[in-house]
Write a sequence for this structure.
């Protein structure tokens, strides 16, 4: 009998953690998810969420996650410390820190909880766009490693190139799907919440130093809603409210093909023009 | 010679903290800012921000704040512990905990920083509404103590009463001004970010148990932009993207009369219908 071992998906390799002592997890950066400086912020967010999921005291599923990118994560090993700060009947609050050789690079808080059936209503409207197959993939520049893990098909607001001028609107809308394909779960959704390149690139029509300072993700989809998506593309849309004084906000929505609003996310981004 | 001592504004009394040992501040809940269960979430957010502002190591001004309401704050004394987790050249990251007799009720993270002049653009549009004087004040129900600290003039989406039916839209837009008048500063702005009643009340046309789980505020206004507002009313607008499984998100903007977008905020709210 031949045992068939499926190769680990690169995303799962990147967020893989080894539980050490109580609440401490050992991880390692993944070259496949490198950004220009340090790892893709989305993979750091996913890894922090994964730490809570793996914690033996964990209650329920992710409701919200805030990640503060305090300093650059260097290539190599890191440690995540996850601490349940308060456990209620149906919700649980977590504080997390990511360190490298004792130096803090990232802090986070997360709320997990048990969802129940209630009245529901999606008030935001899913953008009306062509089906994913009707949109051409538009690759990121080759030097951004992490983006090669996603098939991105921009309906509007693609990554600027040398011929792009300024754009009056900061909105990008795209179909996005992990490549190779992978079923949707909460860590994947957390990473996708950060898949939108900095809006200032789009407005100014060029690259410049920019990095997320703080990212918040609200998880609207329950586990069934996520499972329903399987490995289908999600529709993402992101825009900025205000740029100024070296910072801007960026808000995003992630929709399933079935019209389910799976996550909303917000971030504050540093830029240097 | 008679010394004239101005009475302390109730907001300043409510957020008043006494520095104890390193990074620990002693405070006390204020009856004037009580909500149905525990204090108004906005006053807790403002008090946490105030702790960082008072910390001798503090660098710059608030850029973002996330507050996780883990458990109810009881009437009485509390302690805030503020810890600078990382200090960079122009930004500083903070982790905070609020406890009562050793029991954790609230966690928070904050990013402070030094702003500089850059390209700027406000892409969100300020709602077009009548001037504050042309809108009637619409008081909150008398039993919500904290709301008596604000003059609120709803342009749309006022607090529902017995005759309100369901509303197809979750948007509230209002002029809001502290009463008595008080100059705008960052703690005041943090509190105003939570001044919007739970959007589910508006959609369902009635009250029900609801409470903020996690609140994030991005501060777009620099100190000069805040000072310019003096004690003038701000225009606030808030709406929800999705309600379901006992939770909903709520996003808000706070605008100056001069058209400055001063803060954007997002929260995840628990509800029981």
């Amino acid at each position: 009998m031949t045992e068939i071992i499926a190769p680990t998906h690169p995303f799962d390799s990147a967020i893989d953690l080894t539980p050490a002592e109580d609440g401490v997890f050992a991880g390692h950066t993944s070259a496949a998810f490198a950004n220009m400086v340090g790892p893709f912020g989305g993979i750091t967010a996913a890894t922090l969420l994964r730490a809570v999921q793996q914690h033996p005291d964990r209650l329920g599923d992710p409701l919200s996650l805030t990640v503060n990118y305090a300093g650059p994560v260097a290539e190599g090993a890191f440690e995540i410390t996850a601490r349940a700060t308060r456990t209620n009947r149906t919700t649980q609050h977590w504080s997390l820190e990511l360190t490298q050789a004792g130096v803090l690079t990232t802090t986070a808080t997360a709320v997990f909880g048990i969802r129940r059936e209630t009245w529901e209503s999606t008030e935001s409207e899913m953008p009306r766009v062509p089906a994913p197959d009707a949109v051409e993939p538009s690759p990121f520049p080759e030097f951004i490693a992490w983006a090669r893990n996603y098939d991105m098909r921009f309906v509007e607001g693609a990554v600027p190139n040398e011929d792009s001028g300024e754009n009056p609107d900061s909105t990008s809308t795209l179909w996005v799907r992990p490549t190779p394909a992978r079923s949707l779960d909460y860590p994947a959704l957390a990473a996708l919440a950060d898949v939108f390149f900095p809006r200032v690139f789009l407005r100014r029509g060029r690259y410049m130093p920019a990095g997320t300072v703080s990212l918040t993700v609200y998880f609207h989809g329950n586990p069934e809603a996520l499972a329903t998506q399987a490995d289908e593309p999600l529709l993402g849309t992101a825009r900025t409210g205000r740029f100024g004084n070296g910072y801007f906000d960026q808000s995003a929505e992630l929709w399933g093909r079935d019209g389910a609003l799976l996550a909303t996310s917000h971030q504050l981004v540093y830029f240097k023009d």
